[in-house]
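Researcher: Can you fold this with pyridoxal-5'-phosphate in place?
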Amino acid sequence: MSHSLTRRHFVQRTLAAASIGWMGSPTVRAMVFTPNDAKPALLGGKPIRTESFPSWPKIASNDEKAWSDVLHQGRWCCLDGGFANRFEETWASMLGAKGCVATASGTTALFTSLKALGVGPGDEVIVPPYTFVATINVVLLQYAVPVFVDTDREASQIDANKIESAVTSRTKVIIPVHIGGSSAHMDKILEVARKHKLVVLEDACQAHLAEWRQRKVSTIGDLGCFSFQASKNLNSGEGGAILSNDEDLLERCRSFHNNGRGKRGPGFEFVRNGSNHRITEFQAALLNEQLTRLEGQTKIREQNAAYLTNLLREIPGISPARMYDGCTRNAYHLYMFRYDSKAFAGLPRDHFLKALEAEGIPCSGGYKPLNKEPFIEATLQSRHYRNIYPEKELSAYKDRNHCPENDKLCGEAVWFTQTMLLGPRSDMDQIAEAIGKIQRSAAQLVKA
Ligand SMILES: Cc1ncc(COP(=O)(O)O)c(C=O)c1O
């Protein structure tokens, strides 16, 4: 099949195959598709794609100049230079927030936020299990208890309908994570938060420029955090930021991340216990320059993702992650879909991933069930936790910690990274073509 597959052509073939029952019979598949089409690359056939997808990060001369400016100015710490201040102002204004505190990473942004909110021993924090481990680690680092709320499998986001039943008298904060760059259901989350007087800390680490009802995520709850780690859509190797419209919270964050200083900048006046989670001028300089390309790159990702979704929706057994109606912009840090092996002759998900890789389409199965990580139970059973919480509560944790929908999602998810959405539309055709090819040859792959 040619690499310039048109959507119509692809859809026609898929529908033709589906309508005559292609799932059932290899004979039917052979009637519909040419034999060399059917030989999967994993079994020695020709891969659909041999060239690589766009590389990341994108580097231009402005990055080099900014970096070298910091180097030669010799003011490498953000307390002396102006690059971090400029980044904070620009990022806050791009997102429509009152202020921004740039940090060393997304993890330290979340950690600082929880400190500013006064979360500590004895508190519970509601979290999704479908996230990067940092969302949970920061809660455990405060000796608080992460309470997992199951995932809405269709959207891959926290199931906002299940949050209220997880609220107890200990609950202080909800951390919705806008996973993959799509938005969690913020209307429902804010409703529960208001009703129970809880704080909402948005983990927007994967959601640069994403929106909920035309407002940028990170500015909808009380605080929002970003990561600028190397894989992220806005990247300075490592880096992070806290956004808020609450000046008091911003001030606490700024103070905590700057060793508890009372005022912005250096000096020896301390008003609280703090830490050093500052960004460097080098990171900030890169961010200022990378920012100039973010909007353009985000548009390309959106367009390619929309096109790919239209193609993939036509393939039986492939379900692109649902975007809630309120999600007016998806940042597509990840392109996520669910894979149903029943539509692929029973080919297990992990085998499908290998076959897709062999066709030249990099992919992964994404997260494992985080709530089942043994380190969580071990932390909760540690001496420190036992000093704080009654034994009865700690042993009851196991009974509260079930996320069956998330378990299913972890076994059926397939992810593509954001860089795969930065190339030409024909790249999307090849992705769909490779999946279609695997579907048609699934019976062969199962037997191999
Ligand atoms: C959802 C989520 N939260 C938090 C983080 C932590 O960010 P960082 O790696 O910058 O510390 C990440 C980064 O991968 C993330 O994806």
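Model: Folded with pyridoxal-5'-phosphate in place. Residues 281-312 form the longest helix (32 residues).
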